[in-house]
Amino acid sequence: MSHPGASGAPGCPHVSELYASVPRTCLPIVYHPDYNITFMGLEKLHPFDAGKWGKVINFLKEEQFLTDDNIVEAREAAEEDLLIVHTKRYLNRLKWSFVVATITEIPPLLFLPNFLVQRKVLRPLRTQTGGTIMAGKLAVERGWAINVGGGFHHCSSDRGGGFCAYADITLAIKFLFERVEGISRATIIDLDAHQGNGHERDFMEDRRVFIMDMYNRYIYPRDGYAKQAINRKVELDWGTEDSEYLQKVELHSEGALNEIRPDIIIYNAGTDILDGDPLGGLSISPQGIVKRDELVFRAAKRRNIPILMVTSGGYQKKTARIIADSILNLHRQGMIEAESLEGEVSSSLVTGMMRHSGNAASNVV
Predict the structure, then answer these.
(1) Residue 274 lies in a domain
(2) Of the listed 154, 194, 252, 356, which one is catalytic?
(3) Which pTM was predicted?
(4) Structural domain boundaries enclosing 208
(5) Would residue 345 count as lying in a domain?
(6) Is 47 a domain residue?
(7) How far is 76 from 211, CA to CA, in rounded Å?
(8) Buried (b) or exposed (e) across 240-258, using 16+ Cβ within 10 A?
């Protein structure tokens, strides 16, 4: 269902560049150099490594898993795309630098002209958001997709927070529901150290979306209202370690997928669970993170359910290497390949996916 602010009549989505076709020679891994936030060192005032995404890609290139030719280049989400979920009022508020400073937790942005904030901070976040939406379509077509950025799970339709200015997970799901035949149920498996209160608020009344969220119960955002939307809630204590953590990941991800079989899984794979993370408060080893991702992908592959992974939080310099190692492990384990899902996704999903009429279809397929 479109947000009231979205353009186009019901059943006729607006023309979007984000669902352009992607050559089969590309791996369904989405990235753009514009993901990285660099501006006069201001990005260093937030614990987030704002160049993390480029480092992941460089590691994957070094291992000869990726080249510039087989990466899918993300596109920036346009205002019309964002209006599928966000209110016009919220998007207008982002034109005030103090609002963006609050959301990103970088106070000096308050003193910068908004055109600079738009270009240096919000455009990278819009490009990552576009990447998540693009990766949703790719996951359906190929069986899996990874957006090397995204996972802004604290943002909902009308408010941002926690470095999250756009609700990319909600947007990816609504795009799929609106534009891809046969996609009518989604499961979010959110394993970032923080509660995913943004998508929870957005899907509070939506029975089509099943949410599993596993997080440190004592840290931000502690959003009691949003918790009502969680179908499978796993609250962790400070310092939870590998054995207990991985046991819970396996038990609850398998349980969630047994409870309701979705048409797509959105996996929020935050690395802020890593031992020593200044914000996550958990004690998971690098090997534990790699194993966690493998468990989730294995559960999806066993059931032949397409999976979209986004990278979300992670506040240490070493997280980029761990994300790259995890992707390489998924490849070694046969969880991700260039081929589509066994049995191929039905051609009606891939070729007849757009519910467009007339000329609009030719612009988006």
Answers:
(1) yes
(2) 154
(3) 0.90
(4) 18-338
(5) no
(6) yes
(7) 27
(8) bebeebbebbbebbbebbe
Facing residues of 210 across strands?
187
Can you give the CATH number for the domain in which 309 is found?
Answer: 3.40.800.20
29-31, strands of its sheet edge to edge: 72-73, 29-31, 144-147, 307-310, 264-268, 186-190, 209-216, 232-236
**Residue 219: C-alpha distances to residues 276, 308, 359 (Å):** 15, 26, 49
Closest listed residue to residue 257, CA positions, set 225, 305, 329:
305
Cis peptide before 10 (omega within 30 of 0): no
Distance CA 298, CA 252 (A): 13
- Strand-pair partners of 308: 145, 266
154 given a catalytic annotation: yes
Structure-token pair, residue 129 = 């958001």
pLDDT in the model for residue 336:
96
User: Assign residue 48 a region: left if phi > 0, alpha if psi is -120 to 50, beta otherwise?
Assistant: beta
Q: What is the pLDDT of residues 166-185, one digit of tens each?
A: 999 999 999 999 999 999 99
Q: Give a yes or no: residue 360 inside a domain.
A: no
Q: How many domains does the chain have?
A: 1
Residue 208 CA to residue 101 CA, distance in Å, equals 34
Give the model confidence (pLDDT) of 11-24 as tens digits.
Answer: 588 999 999 999 99
